[in-house]
Automatic annotation (TrEMBL), chain A:
Recorded GO CC terms: plasma membrane
GO biological process: cell division
Record function comment: Part of the ABC transporter FtsEX involved in cellular division.
PROSITE patterns assigned to the protein according to its UniProt record, in alphabetical order: ABC_TRANSPORTER_1 (PS00211), ABC_TRANSPORTER_2 (PS50893)
Name of the featured protein: Cell division ATP-binding protein FtsE
Subunit organization: Homodimer. Forms a membrane-associated complex with FtsX.
Pfam families: ABC_tran
Stretches assigned to the ABC transporter domain: 2-222
Coiled-coil regions listed: none
Membrane topology: Peripheral membrane protein
UniProtKB/TrEMBL annotation, chain B:
Pfam families: FtsX, FtsX_ECD
Gene Ontology annotations of biological process type: cell division
Protein's UniProt name: Cell division protein FtsX
InterPro entries referenced in this protein's UniProt entry, alphabetically: ABC3_permease_C, FtsX, FtsX_ECD
Compartment annotation: Cell membrane
Source lineage: Bacteria, Candidatus Woeseibacteriota
One GO term describing the cellular component: plasma membrane
Species for this entry: Candidatus Woesebacteria bacterium GW2011_GWB1_44_11b
Length: 222, 303
């Protein structure tokens, strides 16, 4: 499903990623861990073709995404649901509108929006917050809106970048619980985190990055 | 959805919207006034061009065949149109009609003092001099009158022609220049306002791009916003010009008398103004599309 083959990414003299290789299969749940600056967000941006690798290949669905034309990049991104570290919600739109944006981007017929948005908000437990604005929500709720927006289009892959970063233990566990739930539905889930407690508790595959290098992979095929 | 977002953008920064709409309103106000001036000057020229501008008064002893030859020659001449022969009796009749309010004047004159004439209009006023000179050289022609020089005599013929042409030129060229300058200013203001919008919404644009929005999806509300500014500016500019024109129309019609510088019936008058509105809306939308797409392209490139 997703494969990084000897991927390096440099920003001038700074090496954000060095020779990173791993493969994530369809339906797999993977944690990517490492301290700040280890290269976790760079991985996400490479997967979204927001960055192009300095060397190596990023394969998605059997295709090297570096070879995609500019006009094909939105199609790639529509297949990947991203939960951003800083939520990246649209501050002047309500929770419902934030989730609807994903459907609009995908070109889903408007008459289907209500059903899909209500279902996903119910799943993340925000059905009673639908008409509120992001500024009226707590950190955990914002994270769940971000998750709802990522999931509402039924993407093949979900990449959650530090989804538990600023959350209390209980909320973090609830968010990860949701990610595990959608993984069980057959989606590929990649979660970047530095919350070791949750990882240890779940016992899923863990890829560890340090200073841009892959230092360990608990169960993958390199 | 895009329209709602565009309206939200406007609602959240009303002063930027007001600035853009004001500048566009001024542009299209001037545009409407100039369009009406161009129409009126065209009507004025057309009025003079369709009047029998040249009258060749024939000698009393002119032979019918010679007159007939001259008339046929003029009818075949591509420089003139609407050639007609006016007999002595018809000339007297015209005089009687013109002095109908004072029949004594008509009784005092003899039909023989009115010469027969050949009247015609000119295709191009600039060629009046050469045609008149040719006529004067004709053996059956006594003298030549040129109605466009009334009040100035033939000596001022070139001056009259030049004055009419200069006036038309200044209205058209000056109008176009003014509209181009104001149009360019409006275009820049529109680009600046849209550019400011894009700067404040950079995060939103980046997020939309990262979740897979195509450039058309990102551009749509911004382009719609520019079109709303432009269409509103067009409408207010046109409305102000309409009020002004309605206010001055009675004075203009009275001043120009029989010359139809503006349509006299209400339906034609409003059809003219609606045609101007439609034209300006098309121009407004083109300016909005061009300005906003340029601003968005610059913004997306600089990301």
């Amino acid at each position: 499903m997703v494969e990084f083959k000897k991927v390096s990414k440099n920003f001038g003299s700074i090496k954000a990623l060095s020779d990173v290789s791993f493969k994530v299969d369809k339906g797999e749940f993977v944690f990517i861990i490492g301290p700040s600056g280890a290269g976790k967000t760079t991985l996400m941006r490479l997967l979204l073709r927001d960055y192009t690798p300095s060397s190596g290949e990023v394969i998605f669905d059997g295709k090297d995404i570096a070879t995609l034309k500019k006009s094909e990049i939105p199609d790639l991104r529509q297949k990947i649901g991203v939960v951003f570290q800083n939520f990246r919600l649209l501050p002047e739109r309500t929770v419902r509108e934030n989730v609807e944006v994903s459907l609009a981007v995908l070109g889903v017929a408007k008459q289907e929006w209500d059903q899909k948005v209500n279902d996903i908000l119910k799943m993340v437990g925000l059905q009673d917050r639908a008409e509120l604005f992001p500024s009226q929500l707590s950190g955990g709720e914002l994270q769940r809106v971000s998750l709802a927006r990522a999931l509402v289009t039924n993407p093949k892959v979900v990449f959650a970048d530090e989804p538990t970063g600023n959350l209390d233990w209980e909320t973090a566990e609830a968010i990860v619980g949701l990610l595990v739930k959608i993984s069980k539905e057959g989606k590929t889930v990649i979660v970047s985190s530095h919350n070791k407690t949750i990882m240890d508790k779940l016992g899923k595959r863990v890829i560890e990055l340090k200073a841009g290098k892959l230092v360990s992979d608990s169960g993958g095929k390199k | 959805m895009h329209l709602k977002v565009a309206l939200d953008y406007i609602r959240r920064a009303p002063f930027q919207a007001l600035a853009a709409i004001s500048v566009l309103s001024v542009t299209f106000f001037v545009g409407t006034v100039i369009a009406i001036l161009v129409y009126s000057s065209s009507q004025l020229l057309n009025y003079f061009e369709t009047r029998p501008q040249v009258i060749a008064f024939l000698k009393q002893d002119a032979v019918f065949e010679e007159v007939n030859t001259l008339q046929s020659r003029l009818e075949a001449d591509p420089r003139v149109k609407d050639v007609s022969f006016v007999s002595k009796e018809q000339a007297l009749e015209i005089y009687k009609n013109a002095t109908a309010d004072n029949p004594l004047l008509a009784e005092l004159v003899s039909p023989t003092i009115f010469p027969a004439s050949i009247e015609f209009s000119l295709i191009d006023l600039a060629r009046a001099r050469e045609i008149i000179d040719e006529l004067k050289a004709n053996s059956v022609v006594e003298s030549v009158g040129f109605t466009a020089s009334l009040g100035g005599g033939e000596a001022s013929l070139n001056e009259v022609v030049d004055r009419l042409k200069t006036l038309t030129f200044y209205i058209r060229a000056g109008g176009v220049a003014l509209v181009v300058v104001l149009g360019a200013t409006s275009f820049l203001v529109l680009m600046i306002v849209i550019g400011m919008r894009l700067t404040t919404r950079r995060g939103e644009i980046e997020t939309l791009s990262l979740i897979g929005a195509k450039s058309g999806f990102i551009r749509a509300p911004i382009v719609l916003e520019a079109i709303i500014y432009s269409a509103t500016g067009v409408f207010f500019g046109w409305l102000l010009a309409l009020i002004l024109v309605l206010y001055v129309t009675p004075a203009i019609l009275s001043y120009f008398g029989a010359i139809p510088v503006l349509p006299r019936d209400t339906m034609s008058f409003f059809l003219l103004l609606l045609a101007i509105l439609a034209g300006e809306l098309v121009i407004g939308v083109v300016v909005a599309l061009w300005g906003s797409l340029l601003a968005v392209s610059r913004s997306l490139k600089s990301k």
